[in-house]
Amino acid sequence: MKQPRILAFMQNPWFEPGTRPEIIDRYKTDQEFHRRLLARTMSGQRLLTAFGPTMFMEIWWDNVAPKAAVEAAGVTDIDMQHVDKLICDYKPDIILAFGKLAEKALDNSFYAELIPYFCCHHPNARGYTMLDLAAFAVQITDWINEWRLQQ
């Protein structure tokens, strides 16, 4: 069964103070490593639960602001060149945005206008539950099933 190429953006990474630079660099350049580190975070655990391990591992995870924040709740500036380059290079069939910063980046991307994209709250956003995130995962699964019928 054909799998769509799924690209997902979160806002920005955060690493514990003192994290070795080579770990941060590998997070940016090695998608498997990126997935494994993400899966060990609270956000990643929630995404893993909502989407399931198979789909979680099929998604290309990245950040619209790839520069790491200096504190857990910190935010860094959107890097539109990074966002647009990744969309052009990866050529996704669908893009997912988690959080307001990721949604803003996709709203401002010329390339994202050409590809279906769906926005959801950040996995750790206050006022939302795992049921909300799970409902979003079902919506994406439904889209994938429709996409497969058209292939």
Report on this model:
- With 151 residues, the protein is an alpha/beta fold.
- It has a single domain, classed as Uracil-DNA Glycosylase, subunit E (3-Layer(aba) Sandwich).
- It has 6 helices and 4 strands, in the order E-H-H-H-E-H-E-H-E-H.
- It has a 4-stranded parallel sheet with strand order 2-1-3-4, with helices on both faces.
- The longest helix is centred in the C-terminal third of the chain and has 21 residues.
- The protein starts with 5 loop residues before the first strand and ends with a helix.
Write the layout of secondary structure elements.
Elements (H helix, E strand, L loop, with lengths): L5 E5 L10 H9 L1 H9 L2 H17 E5 L16 H11 L3 E5 L1 H8 L9 E4 L9 H21 L1
Task: Briefly summarize what is shown.
Helix content is 50%, strand content 13%. The protein has helices at residues 21-29, 31-39, 42-58, 80-90, 100-107, 130-150; strands spanning 6-10, 59-63, 94-98, 117-120. The radius of gyration is 15 Å and the shape is globular.
User: What is the CATH homologous superfamily assignment?
Assistant: Uracil-DNA glycosylase-like domain
How many domain units?
A: 1
The largest sheet is: 4 strands, parallel
The CATH class designation is: Alpha Beta
Architecture (CATH level 2) name: 3-Layer(aba) Sandwich
What is the tally of helical segments?
6
Structural class by sheet pairing and helices: alpha/beta
Straight-line N-to-C gap: 10 Å
Low-confidence segments, given as residue ranges, are: none
Radius of gyration: 15 Å
What proportion strand?
A: 5-15%
Secondary-structure element order, N to C = EHHHEHEHEH
- The number of distinct β-strands equals 4
Helix content: 40-55%
Give the overall pLDDT as a whole number.
Answer: 92
